[in-house]
Amino acid sequence: MKEEQVQDSNEIQDNAINENKAADTAETVSETDAFTAEEISEVSDGDELKRLQGLADEFQGRTLRVQADFDNFRRRTLKEKEELAQYATSKLVTELLPVMDNFERALATAPATPEFEAFTKGVNMIFRQLEGVLKNEGLTAMETVAQPFNPEYHQAIMQVESEEHEEGIVTEEVQKGYLLKGKVLRPAMVKVSM
Questions:
Q1: What is the mean pLDDT of residues 57-75?
Q2: Are 145 and 125 in contact (CB under 8 A)?
Q3: Closest by alpha carbon to 137, among 70, 103, 91?
Q4: Beta strand pairing status for 139-141 and 183-186?
Q5: What is the pLDDT of residue 34?
Q6: 7 pLDDT exceeds 80?
Q7: Phi and psi dihedrals of 123, rounded to 5?
């Protein structure tokens, strides 16, 4: 019986030793597994980090483009608004140009008699007043005679031979041209030397 007890106690010790070895081995394996899991986690975290960084960069780029588009839209809208305010009167001024032309024709054909002198002076004053109002709006008459022909400002209605002007020079103005704040409102009708 003693032998059986010794044998049982040896078996228990062997079992305990085996269990300790198994525990140590399991601990080593689990540490290795845990380390491998951490490495895998780090690799996954690194990939995830790269993916998230890529998304962040993409969204930042989109945001910058949208902001630039908005700034361009704001500038374009402001410019259009300024141009609209600047040229809002252009339609009215364009419709008043024939009135200006008729005033000039009437003054050019007015008789030079003492009876019509007061009348002519009054009409001339009205014409100067209208001219002043339109000038305040930015209307200016073009200087065309003796200037080189420019199709942006002049509309040639005929070519004439001229000894006093070189070829391509405006010799006569048939109808005045006007600029409204630097922009051509009506080109001048002219005769050009050839």
A1: 95
A2: no
A3: 91
A4: unpaired
A5: 46
A6: no
A7: -65, -40
SS (H, E, C) the chain: CHHHHHHHHHHHHHHHHHHHHHHHHHHHHHHHHHHHHHHHHHHHHHHHHHHHHHHHHHHHHHHHHHHHHHHHHHHHHHHHHHHHHHCCCHHHHHHHHHHHHHHHHHHHCCCCCHHHHHHHHHHHHHHHHHHHHHHHCCEEECCCCCCECCCCCEEEEEEECCCCCCCCEEEEEEECCEEECCEEEECEEEEEEC
8 A C-beta contact, residue 177 and residue 142: yes
Q: How confident is the model at residue 116 (pLDDT cuts 50, 70, 90)?
A: confident
Enter the tokens of residue 90.
Answer: 């252009």
Here the contacts of 4-11 (C-beta below 8 Å, separation 24 or greater) are none
Q: What are phi and psi of 161, to 5 degrees?
A: -80, 135
